[in-house]
Amino acid sequence: MILEDMVDKRVVVTAGASGIGKVIATRFAEAGAKVHICDVAVEQLAALRESHPEITTSLADVSAPEDVRRFFEDAAQSLGGLDILVNNAGIAGPDMNTEDIDYDAWSRTLDVNLSGTFLCTQHAIRLLKQGGIGGSIVNISSNVGLMGLQRRAPYVASKWALIGLTRSMSLELGPFGIRVNAICPGDVEGERIDRVIRMEAESRGVSRDQVVAERVEGTALRTFISPHDVAALILFVCSEAGARISGQALAVDGHVEHL
Ligand SMILES: NC(=O)c1ccc[n+]([C@@H]2O[C@H](COP(=O)([O-])OP(=O)(O)OC[C@H]3O[C@@H](n4cnc5c(N)ncnc54)[C@H](O)[C@@H]3O)[C@@H](O)[C@H]2O)c1
Fold first, then answer.
1. How far does residue 135's CA lie from ligand 1's centre (Å)?
2. I need a surface site. Which of 27, 79, 213, 242 has the fewest CB within 10 A?
3. pLDDT surpasses 70 at 67
4. Which CATH number fits domain 4-187+226-251: 3.30.390.50, 3.40.50.2300, 3.40.50.720, 3.60.110.10?
């Protein structure tokens, strides 16, 4: 039922050329949705077009208002409207104590993770309201959007902020049949978490294996998360099965204890 609900849905995914976004985009496409993505990585975009010619693409930075305007023009033209937006683009930001963080690094993290989501969502709301049949917006936060984490203040602040944005927009958009939810993954297998683990191991002067073991031990299910777990939850939330779910921050993290 969940997969059948996706047939012919018009879906936009930000940062869909690699990582979790690529798995989300391809999962929707495999379920029969029409998918348009953006990314800043030229080579990854070309590779995705080669492997998945059914997915259309824009070269766009979500933090640049003019790029986002063009991205949604492309999306509206390619898809003929919009049913689902997945705001996936996000950067890790600096790994350092708050007093040492450069203002530019702080701003860049907030620009991509928070303002990028805001900009894309504004365009999506207009398209969803034009369609007149509601829709679904999913913001990729993180389980650190539900707790604190040392040396990662800009990232953590941006992911908490996304939950505030989600809850506020859900109240505004619910009367139009538009649902807004945040997804909060734990450590997801892939290049990004490899980089984060390497940075943490170097900054603490411990081995990579120790960092991995501690992170896995910190979850009740003793596990990392697969990007497919994240995609599955998003498809569920966007399907009829999730029709009464809005304004929520849903963790997929093997149960890390937080608020
Ligand atoms: N990887 C994890 O463990 C994890 C955990 C929780 C939440 N998340 C969140 O999931 C999302 C995806 O994470 P990921 O691990 O796949 O990331 P990633 O670092 O692997 O990047 C994925 C893609 O984002 C693109 N991108 C970067 N900046 C962009 C911008 N300004 N505009 C458009 N595209 C841009 C990159 O080119 C890349 O193709 C992020 O929001 C991240 O914060 C990740």
1. 23
2. 213
3. yes
4. 3.40.50.720
Quote the pTM value.
Answer: 0.97
Domain locations in the chain? 4-187+226-251, 190-224
Render pLDDT for 13-63 as a digit per residue (tens, 0 to 9).
Answer: 999 999 999 999 999 999 999 999 999 999 999 999 999 999 999 999 999
CB proximity list for 26: less than 8 A, separation 6 or greater: 52, 55
Q: What is the pLDDT of residue 259?
A: 67
Q: Is 103 part of the annotated catalytic residue set?
A: no
Give 217: exposed, middle or buried? Use CB within 10 Å, 0-12, 13-18, 19+.
exposed
Residue 227 near residue 19 (C-beta atoms within 8 A): yes
Is 121's C-beta closer than 6 angstroms to any atom of ligand 1? Answer: no
Would you say the CB of residue 144 lies under 6 angstroms from ligand 1?
no
- 175 CA from centroid of ligand 1 (Å): 31
In this prediction, residue 8 has a pLDDT band, given cuts at 50, 70 and 90, of very high
How much is the average pLDDT of 142-164?
Answer: 97
